[in-house]
Amino acid sequence: MTAATLWDHPLSALLAHNNLTAAAYLRRVADQHRALGYGGMAVRKEKLTRWKRHPPGRPAQLAIARLHGIPPVEVDRLGWPDFLMLAFPRDGAVLESEWTPAGTLHLLTDMGGSVDLDRRGFLVVTASALAASVAQWVTAAPAVAVGDRGRRVGAEAPELFDARLHALRHLDDIVGAGQVYTAALVELRLITDLLRNASYSEEVGRRLFSCAAEAARLAGWCAYDAGRIAQAEQHFLTGLRASGSAADPTSGAVILAFWANLRYAKGDARGALHLVDSALDDHRKITSPRVTAMLHARAARAHSKAEEPTSAWRRVDAAFAAYASAPPSDEDLPSMTWITHGELHQVAASSALSLNEPRRALEHFTAAVTHTDQYDTQRETRGTAIYLARQAEAHLLLDDVDAAVDVGHKVVKLMGGVDSARASDTLDDLREGLSGHKHIPIVRNFLDYVAA
Question: How far apart are CA 28 and CA 51, in angstroms?
Answer without folding.
Answer: 16
